[in-house]
Amino acid sequence: MMSDIDDIDRTILALLQENGRTPYAELGKAVGLAVSSVNERVKKLNERGVIEGVHAAVSASALRLDLLAFVFVGWNDPATEEQFLARVASEPAILECHHVTGTWNYLLKVRTHTTRDLEAFLGGIVKAVPGVLRTETLIALSSPKETGHLPLVPPTEHARKAGR
């Protein structure tokens, strides 16, 4: 799919990742196209599933969700997975859920207000799923980089352009 995206599309996507409300006239100036052409390109990117939606970036600290934790979750019985994933899908404190390799089954990215809230979350949500045998929790002290922006250039090309 990356091969279907040209440099103009990449620039449009980069600008929209920065600010999803960028006016098409501004996008057009940045890429040298008329507003109607930008509109058509964005429409096609949506239709092809490259753009999945436009979202507001909400400040975790403004909502006092100051505790960021990563929770590894493990079990032995494959039947546990279905109930676990159902619980994960309905829990707003879980920002991300990743099926991982190694000794763990899943990795969760979680935001809560306090360590007490995290403890309640672990006991009442994660460990309450029948079959969950173990968890390991890492608490982030700070996050020098946290982004939802996707790389629009393959890492090898980016390294080449950076002179590496």
TrEMBL record:
Domain of life the protein comes from: Bacteria
Cited PROSITE patterns: HTH_ASNC_2
Keywords, comma-separated and alphabetical: DNA-binding, Transcription, Transcription regulation
Pfam families in UniProt: AsnC_trans_reg, HTH_AsnC-type
InterPro entries assigned: ArsR-like_HTH, AsnC-type_HTH_dom, Dimeric_a/b-barrel, Tscrpt_reg_AsnC-like, Tscrpt_reg_AsnC/Lrp_C, WH-like_DNA-bd_sf, WH_DNA-bd_sf
Domain HTH asnC-type: start-end pairs: 5-76
SMART domains linked to this entry: HTH_ASNC
Gene Ontology, cellular component aspect: cytosol
A molecular function GO annotation: sequence-specific DNA binding
Any GO BP: regulation of DNA-templated transcription
Name of this chain's protein: Lrp/AsnC family transcriptional regulator
